[in-house]
Design a protein that fits this description.
about 80 residues, mainly alpha, about 70% helix, SpoVIF, Sporulation protein
Length: about 80
């Protein structure tokens, strides 16, 4: 993709696209049945987005991923980033 495209996204969102791609790459072989892994991903997304995730919300996200089998992919990460306002 065009580098200007990503620069525009960074300017509009304040989210560093390199961090997002690094996170997405790290998810490929992650064990999402492991609570520690899932919590680490949630915290990393929160850090990248510069939006704190309250403990109660983190617990709900962990439950939905581990117990309910919700997918954790780039789309889910994007939703997590965009919905933390």
């Amino acid at each position: 993709m065009d580098n200007n495209f990503f620069k525009n996204i960074e300017q509009k969102t304040g989210v560093n696209m390199k961090d997002v791609f690094d996170l997405a790459n790290s998810l490929q072989n992650a064990n999402f049945k492991d609570e520690k892994t899932v919590r680490g991903v949630i915290r990393r997304v929160s850090q990248i987005a510069n939006r704190p995730v309250p403990k109660e919300m983190e617990d709900q996200i962990v439950k939905s991923i581990i117990n309910d089998g919700k997918q954790l992919d780039f789309s889910t990460i994007s939703e997590m980033i965009n919905n933390k306002k």
